Amino acid sequence: MNILDKITRDKRIEVNLRKQLIPIKQLEQSILFDRETISLANKLRESNTGIIAEHKRRSPSKQVINHDLNVFDVAKGYENAGVCGMSVLTDGKYFGGSLDDLLTARASCNLPLLRKEFIIDEYQIIEAKAYGADVILLIAAILSKTEIKLFSELAKRINLDVLLEVHNEEELHKAIMPSLDMLGVNNRNLKTFDVDLETSKQLSALIPNEFVKVSESGISNIEAIKTLQPYGYKGFLIGENFMKTDDAGQSATTFIEELNT
Questions:
Q1: Longest dimension (CA), the chain
Q2: Is 2 exposed, middle or buried (0-12, 13-18, 19+ CB in 10 A)?
Q3: Concatenated DSSP letters for 67-125?
Q4: Could you give the CA distance from residue 91 to residue 82 in angstroms, rounded to a whole number?
C-alpha cells in the first residue's frame, strides 16, 4: 500500500467521524458560508509571478518542515509579499494541519485560500466553504471521473474555484471537464517521492488553454519558474521552500522580488 492509499483510507474514517459530530446543516449556517469568495484562477491569470505559497508543518516525505511558525504570521507575511494565493494544509495525521489553520488564515488575510486536503467526500467541500476557503483541491489519483465531476460541480455551485491535480497523462485524460478552473501538475511521484519538472513540461501541451496551468512540487528556485513559464504555466505552488525558513513571509518577499527583476 503506497502513502496515498494509506492517507485516503485514514481520511475515509476521519470524515465519517466528523460527519457524525457536525452535520452539513450546521456547516451551512457558519458565518463564513455566505461570504463572497475570491477567485484564485483570476488572480493567477492577471499575475506575472503566480506564486501560491503554502503553510505546511510537515509531510510524509520530509517529516518536520517547521513547527515554529504560526499561521497568523505566515498568512500576513505571504499577503505582504504579494503572493497570488495561500495553500493551507488541513490534514492532521500526515501533515500536522487542521481546519483551525484555515480559519486563522482567513481571519489574517484577504488572499484566496486553497484548502489543501485529500477530498474523498462532498462533506469536505461544504466544510471548506464553511471554514473560509476560496478554492478546493481535487486529486485525480484518488478519485474516479464520476467523483471529479460530482465534487467539482458542487464546488462551482457554492462559488469555490477548483484546482485539479494530476501526475500523468492517464489522470489528465479522465479529468478534463468544464467544472474545473485550474489544472495542477504535481511533479512529485507519489509512489517514490522523486520530483521531476519534466512532468510539467510533458503534460503542458495536453492541457487545454481554458484552464489555468499550475505546477506543483519541486519549485524551489527562480530558474524552475522561468523554465516553466514558456510552457504556459501561470501558477506555481511553493511549500517547503518558504516554510523551512524562520520567516516564511520574508522568504516569499525576497523570492518574488528576485523573480520580478
A1: 52
A2: exposed
A3: SS--HHHHHHHHHHHT-SEEEEE--STTT---HHHHHHHHHH--S-EEEE----SHHHH
A4: 26
Residue 143 pLDDT more than 90? yes
Indicate the length of the chain as a whole number: 261
Question: Which residue's entry shows cell 485516503?
Answer: 8
Q: Judge whether residue 254 has pLDDT over 90.
A: yes
Terminal-to-terminal C-alpha distance of the chain: 45
Q: pLDDT tens, 212-241?
A: 999 999 898 999 999 999 999 999 999 888
d(CA 135, CA 119): 12
pLDDT for 188-210, tens place per residue? 887 677 889 999 999 999 999 99
What 39-43 contacts at long range (C-beta under 8 Å, 24+ apart), as own/partner pairs, is 39/112, 39/134, 39/161, 39/181, 40/84, 40/85, 40/112, 40/114, 40/134, 40/135, 40/161, 40/163, 40/181, 40/182, 40/235, 41/161, 41/181, 41/182, 41/212, 43/84, 43/85, 43/112
DSSP string, 172-190: HHHH--TT-SEEEEE-B-T
Q: Just list the catalytic residues.
A: 54, 56, 116, 165, 186, 216-217
Read off the pLDDT of residues 83-139 as tens digits, 9 standing for 90 and up. 999 999 999 999 999 999 999 999 999 999 999 999 999 999 999 999 999 999 999
At residue 190, the pLDDT reads 72
71, 39 contact by CB (below 8 A): no
